[in-house]
Amino acid sequence: MPLTLDDFDYALPERLIAQHPPTERGASRLLSLADGRPRDLRFRQLPTLLAPGDLLVFNDSRVLRARLRGVKQTGGRVEVLVERALGPHQALAQVRASKSPVAGSTLRLADAFEVRVLGRVGEFFHLAFPTDQPLDDLLEGHGELPLPPYITRNAGSSDEDRYQTVYARHAGSVAAPTAGLHFDQAMLEALHGAGIETTYLTLHVGAGTFQPVRSHDLSGHRMHQERYLLPAETIAAIARTRAAGGRVVAVGTTSLRALEAAALRGQLAAGSGETDIFIVPGFRFRVVDALLTNFHLPRSTLLMLVSAFAGMAPIRTAYAHAIAADYRFFSYGDAMFLTRQPCDSNS
Length: 347
Fold this sequence. Notes:
Layout: E1 29-33, E2 39-42, E3 55-59, E4 61-63, E5 67-72, E6 77-85, E7 90-97, E8 106-109, E9 113-121, E10 124-128, H1 135-142, H2 159-162, E11 170-173, H3 185-193, E12 197-203, E13 226-230, H4 232-244, E14 248-251, H5 253-263, E15 271-275, E16 290-294, H6 301-310, H7 312-324, E17 335-339
């Protein structure tokens, strides 16, 4: 039977949605599903799940200050969340207002500058920003860090640090690659000392990652586009790891999506691209052997992805265990370590 949204639903007590990060990076819990059975660990024990010669692939995208508040020409309040840049002075954005702005109108944002509404592109608005400053500079100077919608508070000063990974370099995301938030410099050094390799790619996470799946039949869902870049040194590191018999471990679903999307083109090669890859059970993984990830929302495309990777039944068991054991969920929550299962276990 075709998969539907109901296959990826679960009941989550609201108290388990993490509203703040742990007191320090690395203080979170880690649920290992490496052998198909849930095992409770602390994140500091991650090296015990890895072996010398394994390769961790991190997403080094940096979160933009992508949320802007302002008013329409009519005086009504408006909130803009930039989805992605379209060159230095234009962007696609989500716009929240009591009545949607129309093409040709202007919005005054942060009481500092005006943008022109050029039209609609699907669920997003096409906006033209002032040309006297690059878009990134305008966002950095006037925007707010865009915490996810399930965090029911405004971003504070501590989020400026904690909602970025310690290795974030290339600005372009509107949501953090959250599996990486657990790592501090001490953990990175410990991994290196244990003979575990690390490398980086860039995938800029779009606001579409929080868009609900509206098609009950999954075959009707269309994913949003995201940009990625695979450096030549990352491709070389993966080749060395494969040749030596090590595992490729994706840190986060964003790293996995970039690698598997690039592999769909044929031989894995350096370069940039766009992906709208939608990974559901039955997908044949070509690159990633293990995955470090956080817990994901019910009925979400990311829950479908981890179910494809580790098996639907094991993921159901793991999530039930995590809820019973009071794990913390979502962006600021705890982590899971998964190994890839054969396609026939996705039932």
